[in-house]
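Structure first, sequence second, as always.
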């Protein structure tokens, strides 16, 4: 493979790397890194949202009045994101310093142990404390991986790469939903309730995968034994060239990132996305059960359908965004499609049509993730990237607290799903309108192949 380089400021074509060789290197990186990171995120996501299935049995365990359980559950589900918010930026700055291999392994082992510990919850106070602790333990995982991918992939390849990684979240819903429904059915075996089996069985993989990360994940291109010295040098020179081309548009220092108007706008967009996304996911099993009136196992299978559709949409939109260089419009249009889906699902009385509308809502909001993070990483580098990506994710994930909590309160007060779904749709509509005000990345960074 012709991968020798000439000089320092040369671009990829001048560096002697043909387009075919370039695609081969990036493809090898994708296949070496993404499967492990994909599995990590599936495990993380199942541990994050399995409380939505445990909810079906937790009311009796916690001894809470059914009339107020929506608020109690919504607060407990949301406290995860408060812990996540507090520890997110420090966690990502440490990852940038010590390396992804060590820090992601630490995150996974700790959250796996805490997730298993959820099986001992017997009171609302313990429920609140454990959800907060789980968020604190997982803080830094998602933005850490997004940061890690910027060490390997040029900006113009990032929407598809991030979509591939983030698709693990929707695959987790697709795989985890039926598994969670089945595990709940282990109720009474070995003296454990179904919800206890749920937390135990779904916490163990995090610890095991954390050990694999420690043994396998390279810190960066230079540490990858499966790349030649010339190939790793090409990656680093390609990223350095890209940074130099868009240098005047980029933030390098932490203070620059935290005072950037664009960064705070991205924080607001991600907040609104997560109000809709987690409001949806934490309550979907309950809403599906109400619509279908079926068993927990069937609810698990029905719950998987929106995740399957969203995974396909994410990859298609991510590929389109990289090919055209468009970031802003896929984000705006996806959010608006989601708003329409939420509005229709609250308005329609036919349960089958309402379910189709719920699928549209989820497909729309999840399809924005690849282009959104390509926008977010295009103007950040170095310490600013570590802190800025974490800030977007941490502020944005406060929406994961607000969404489920508001859905619970609205359902308690109105006794129906309609007002809650309209609120979630309003958040996505606002996101879509705001997304249209974001400047696109510099043409050099976003230029399609």
């Amino acid at each position: 493979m012709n991968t020798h380089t000439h000089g320092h400021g040369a671009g990829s074509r001048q560096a002697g790397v043909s387009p075919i060789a370039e695609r081969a290197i990036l493809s090898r990186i994708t296949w070496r890194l993404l499967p492990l990171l994909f599995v990590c995120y599936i495990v993380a996501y199942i541990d994050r949202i399995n409380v939505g299935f445990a909810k079906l049995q937790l009311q009796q365990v916690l001894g809470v009045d059914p009339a107020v359980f929506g608020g109690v559950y919504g607060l407990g589900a949301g406290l995860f994101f408060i812990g996540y918010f507090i520890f997110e930026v420090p966690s990502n700055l440490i990852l940038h310093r010590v390396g992804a291999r060590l820090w992601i392994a630490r995150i996974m082992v700790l959250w796996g142990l805490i997730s298993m510990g959820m099986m001992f919850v017997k009171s609302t106070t313990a429920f609140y404390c454990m959800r907060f602790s789980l968020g604190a333990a997982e803080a830094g995982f998602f933005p850490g991986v997004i940061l890690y991918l910027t060490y390997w992939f040029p900006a113009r390849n990032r929407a598809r790469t991030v979509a591939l990684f983030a698709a693990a979240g929707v695959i987790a819903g697709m795989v985890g939903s039926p598994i969670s429904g089945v595990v709940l059915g282990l109720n009474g075996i070995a003296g454990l309730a179904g919800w206890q089996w749920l937390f135990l069985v779904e916490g163990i993989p995090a610890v095991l995968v954390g050990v694999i990360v420690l043994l396998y994940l390279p810190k960066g291109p230079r540490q990858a034994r499966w790349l030649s010295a010339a190939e790793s040098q090409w990656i680093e020179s390609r990223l350095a060239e890209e940074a130099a081309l868009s240098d005047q548009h980029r933030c390098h220092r932490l203070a620059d990132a935290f005072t950037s108007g664009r960064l705070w706008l991205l924080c607001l967009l991600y907040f609104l996305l997560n109000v809709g996304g987690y409001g949806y996911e934490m309550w979907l099993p309950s809403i599906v059960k109400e619509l279908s009136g079926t068993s927990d196992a069937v609810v698990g299978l029905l719950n998987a359908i929106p995740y399957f559709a969203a995974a396909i949409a994410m990859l298609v939109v991510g590929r389109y965004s990289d090919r055209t260089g468009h970031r802003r419009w896929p984000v705006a249009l996806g959010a608006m499609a989601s708003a329409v889906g939420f509005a229709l699902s609250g308005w329609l009385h036919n349960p089958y049509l309402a379910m189709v509308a719920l699928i549209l809502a989820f497909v729309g909001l999840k399809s924005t993730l690849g282009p959104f993070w390509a926008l977010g990483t295009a103007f950040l580098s170095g310490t600013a990237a570590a802190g800025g990506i974490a800030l977007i994710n941490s502020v944005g994930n406060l929406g994961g607290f607000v969404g489920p909590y508001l859905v619970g309160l609205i359902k308690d007060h109105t006794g129906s799903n309609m007002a809650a779904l309209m609120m979630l749709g309003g958040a996505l509509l606002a996101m879509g309108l705001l997304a249209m005000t974001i400047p696109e990345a510099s043409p050099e960074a976003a230029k399609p192949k």
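Margin note: The first helix runs from residue 19 to 49.
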